[in-house]
Amino acid sequence: MVSSNASDGVASSDRYLTGDLRAVEIPDLSSRGDSVAIIRELFSWVESFAVDSINWYTREKVSKARWSRLLRLAAVLSFTLGTVAPVVAVGMGWSKEAIWGYGLIAAGACCVAIDKVCGFSSSWMRYVSTAISLNRQLVLYQASWPRIQVKMTQESNSQYFSEAVQEIIDFVDGFSLVMENETLAWVSEFQSHIIQLESGSVPALPTQSQR
Fold this sequence. Notes:
The chain is mostly helical. The chain contains 4 helices and no strands.
């Protein structure tokens, strides 16, 4: 559905390949000769914004996933070695070295705490679920374009023009709401972690049911 030719009613998705999500200016529609061209340009602009947003979430989740896996793997290894090391040390007659097991367990706890405070795992899951939700809305939006185009072409009047614009507005509203909810979830999580740090409490280790 996506094409680099805006005249086809669609748009390129390569406007913002790097950096944070940024606002985009609406194109100048005053030069368009008829309502069909205006709706086509408006549809293309909104589609491009949606594609850029989805690509941002898809791209950003990669680093979150990498850090999450690294920290969780380090935690598992530390907990395992910290449990086994004292037993092996005592069995080998190295009782004094058994204390190193506590250090390994503490290192594993630090890995879990860092992951939780920095939000690598939670951000990874949020980004994945948000990208899936946004992509679903985009596909439905793209699938509606032929119906809008045919209706506008057959009977180009003010009523159909208003209906087409309203459909685009409804899509933008629903699409933005998903992104807003994801951002609010991040803010709530970040504030919770700040309160934990200021109070000196350590994030709880995951229980068996949380794994």
